[in-house]
Amino acid sequence: MKGYLQVYTGDGKGKTTAAMGTALRALMAGWRVYIGQFLKNGTSGEILALQQLGKTLTVEPYGHGGELTGREKEAYCQAARDGFQKAKEALLCGKYDLVILDECNVALALGYLDVAEVLDLLRMRPEGVECILTGRGAIPEVVEMADLVTEMKEIKHYFAQGVMARKGIEE
Ligand code: ATP
Ligand code: MG
Known about the structure:
The structure is a single chain. This protein is about 35% helix and about 15% strand. The chain is of the alpha/beta class. It is globular. Adenosine-5'-triphosphate binds near residues 15, 17, 164 and 165.
């Protein structure tokens, strides 16, 4: 079965949770799932839930922490590049049917990853491997290559009212 390249991008809420919902479906259909999370360190609720299913799931956070502050850029770049090597292994090793690279679009847009290297990897992944890239600001090259692109459009977000990420809803 052909594996497609999906991209969930845009400024509105729902990109990561859409990918996790797809992981839930895939796992229950017997797919082997890998989730790599750029720029993230913690383990949010949905990951803990997915891990409790007892299915074939690997989760690796690639983050250095605190990326949004913009400080220590070199360390963040290095963490993302190390993550990319893990993502590469996951995409090429044949052990996974679905590979989710959460916030990969952001790592690309911030210049943490080499665009040509990422595009090459996506192109050379085995035929049957489905891949989902999430994160705001998907670069045009990724949009061009993808088979499916969904843009979460922000109509309103309480972030504008100063509401930070809440456990149970955003984490
Ligand atoms: P979810 O994980 O709930 O599916 P998402 O993956 O679509 O959401 P991200 O783009 O990854 O959301 O946003 C991560 C966090 O950034 C949000 O939980 C929110 O707290 C914060 N955020 C939301 N809007 C903005 C904004 N305009 N600028 C900066 N940060 C924002
Ligand atoms: Mg997200």
